[in-house]
Amino acid sequence: MSSKHNDFMSFCALSEAKGMGINMKLVVMGDFHYPRMVDASEELREAREQFFGGMLKAFLDIDADYHVSLGDFTNEGMNEELEYVFDRIKANGTGRTFIHVLGNHDAYSIPKTEILAISGQQRYHRIETEEAVLVFIDTTKEMDRKDYGGEVDPEQAAWLDEVLRQSADKPVLLFAHHPIPNTTKLSDKPMLHIHPEYDIWPLMAKKSGRGYYFCGHNHMNSIVQKDHWHLVQTAACLDIPAFRLIEVSEGQVSVETIHIEDPKLLELAAHIGQNMKHFKPKAGALGEDADLTLTVVHS
Ligand SMILES: [Fe+2]
């Protein structure tokens, strides 16, 4: 029997064992910015409930192995905002595995230990599956409303270095709030990235095999490749009501954008986005076709 035939037989056996399909699905939410709206009209508060409640339900209704928020889940990180979103996840997310990485807005008002006590989340951690290593990191400063750029503390950076080294050739999917400098749209601008003195790109560059970096913060869809990494930045939900669906299958990773088609939710998004504090609608947030889908076949 030729070695080619042997390869084909082992491929068939492996495919059969894995059901020839997608092995892991993740659905990812960009900056959500659930706001407390202290002085808002009753009408605007009702619009808030319908939009954010509707979006969370739509998110959790998507069947996936992991549901991930890329941070800025709340607008100011106030207790009442954090409690609303995490109560909703608990109430509507039975059977779902929800993972939140911190965004700068989430960390504006209370210490991170208090946020994590409300959310029940870890600040940074990893999950190893058969197909990939999922890594979730914290790139935020603590209670600093003036400097909204990113940083990664030395202890976490050392941990990340080790996780990436141990991943060897296995694909890594790394989730964080802030972009890597000079990669996705606007990440060349001050505070629209992890500050260069904390840049984790040198750690990422050392990884062997493919890597995927998912971030938010800049409120624009953008997908770029840098060496053996693909970087996927996702727009804010109020600008572009949509989620990213990541599918990991044998030898392939793909990303697509699932748009929310409900006209009422789209109307509410525009209305709220124009009428809330600490949020500015972003022109050009949708991006081009190349910022919406990605398919990478691993050789
Ligand atoms: Fe944001």
Automatic annotation (TrEMBL):
Transmembrane segments: none annotated. This is 3',5'-cyclic adenosine monophosphate phosphodiesterase CpdA. InterPro entries: Calcineurin-like_PHP, CNP_phosphodiesterase-III. Residues 24-220 form the Calcineurin-like phosphoesterase domain. Its EC number is 3.1.4.53. The gene is cpdA_10. Pfam families: Metallophos. One of its GO terms (molecular function) is metal ion binding. It comes from the Bacteria. Keywords: Hydrolase, Metal-binding.
